[in-house]
Fold C-type lectin domain-containing protein.
Amino acid sequence: MSLILRRTEAFEVSVSAVCLQNWTQFQSSRYRFMNTANWANGQKRCQEIGAMLLVIESGAENSFIAHELRLRNMGRAWLGCTDVKIEGEWVCHLADGIRAMPYDDWKSGQPNNYLHRQHCADVISDTGKWTDIECYHERYAVCEINSTQVKVPAAEPAVVCPRAVATSCYILGADGRLHP
Ligand SMILES: [Ca+2]
Ligand SMILES: [Ca+2]
């Protein structure tokens, strides 16, 4: 019984180790850079791959993301943060719930809630500065997974791990290290 359980755990770890190669790492987070979508659809696509829209928590992370966006020729990307519920009260959607915005880098004059309908936040890759805009706009979706809470959904391996790649999976040994 316990042997079977251990084998299952090892398999899950091996799948995560391979699949997460498609993600870009910075500190304790991994990111996947997706196509444009409106805010709600961007969040939905991230959730479908076990992630959430990017939430930036430090100046270092902000600079990293702006740089990665520029490398990909991506102009503006969503942040997983809105003030749609209470105007001016910015909150961010994390895997374990909604929290007050942990960090901000608003562009001068932003957020301005122009025409009283700008309730989603985006980051501009050129400067790393943020603006509030209408949530229906199309922006790149950057999905983020915190490595400390990695949960690769069952559907993910079939999509991103071709059979040839899966043969190089790693097994988590009893010593806590990954082995080929
Ligand atoms: Ca607003
Ligand atoms: Ca604005």
